[in-house]
Specification:
The complex is a heterodimer of chains A (about 110) and B (about 110). With about 110 residues, chain A is mostly beta strands. Chain A has no helices and 11 strands. At the A-B interface, β4, β5 and β10 of A face β4, β5 and β10 of B.
Amino acid sequence: GAGVSQSPSNKVTEKGKDVELRCDPISGHTALYWYRQRLGQGLEFLIYFQGNSAPDKSGLPSDRFSAERTGESVSTLTIQRTQQEDSAVYLCASSLVVSEYGYTFGSGTRLTVV
Amino acid sequence: GQSLEQPSEVTAVEGAIVQINCTYQTSGFYGLSWYQQHDGGAPTFLSYNALDGLEETGRFSSFLSRSDSYGYLLLQELQMKDSASYFCAVRGGNTNAGKSTFGDGTTLTVKP
């Protein structure tokens, strides 16, 4: 695709429910990244993929968070038993290779847990 | 670990020059990046410095001093559309090449 696509753009869920956030990177980009951005704050690293493998999962806040990538393409970030503190914008980015200087970000999924 | 500091807000007038500073502490360093983010929008990549010195891209320039763990973004001939948040980010060392740590961002307001 022409850019990084994320869906849904907005998600309101009840506390305790599970949610899945999807990211479609730019075609051919081998590296994919997930970040979280709380209101008025910087971007918090969650996880990155090189191909379908995740060399660094150190940013995942708890075992309620998981992510996978298939076909060196689409990635899904899953949050189980959502809590109010999970409310944030979840941003996905991709780059041609991990060593590429800059990332191309998607517009994010705004998650609100009520 | 890694941490970055940048001013929370900067205000300047149209046509002026503004400098946004970034200092960092890191256990491994691969490079310093800058991103721009308009309200409600996606961050967009502006520049990257892996070596000391100045990199120029149109109206924007970025500088890095690795010995001082310091960098800055210089915006010249400011325009109203430059009003946005600007983030510096440090990419980790070889074992963390895919992890970038971001600062909390600097909100730039350009006034007429």
